[in-house]
Amino acid sequence: MVDILLEPSWLEHLREEFSKPYMKSLRCFLQEQKVAGKVIYPRGSEYFAALNATPFANVKVVILGQDPYHNPNQAHGLSFSVNKTASPPPSLLNIFKEISDDLGVPNQFAHGCLDHWANQGVLLINSVLTVERYRAGSHQGKGWETFTDRVIERLSLDKEGCVFLLWGAYAQQKGRFIDESKHCVLKTSHPSPLSAYRGFFGCKHFSRCNAYLDRFGEKPIDWIIG
User: Cβ(69)–Cβ(82) under 8 Å?
Assistant: First the structure.
């Protein structure tokens, strides 16, 4: 595992995690995978890209994903997001469709890179931060889930008025760490083509999120990817 290239405010909240047994075990696992010649996504410098892009004090919204995309030239450390040169995957296309329907804007998103959201305070974090090429879910159960549990727990404890968008049962498991008396938690099905029609389409999470932020005195998110 690469050196801890973590934004200072997040490192202040999470420093103790890096010396715990689970993280040492995770580090060994990732090193063994690399020695064995396995290709891991995203690249090492982007493991903590979501945290580095959105400092702790800036977080207003959290969108939880499961694990990174496992095909080449997609994952770059932000949940649901892909590199600008990659075609948006089906789940992201469904997210764009819901934004368009919810906000009444044209569905003409220029690319699938969600840096624009992260820069406004949307923490785009997966539950598991790495994956082996072509093997979805291959790094689940190795320790990342514990680390991202702590991320959600620290946000819940030390901030107020955040919006948590929990799409699908996997993301909703993190809900147990969120104090709903202090934060807004919106839940629905995953935007995957397999489940989007079971509640994601029509959930209006993007307008509801902005309405909550406005009531809380925060600037709403510009969801349009230009």
Answer: yes
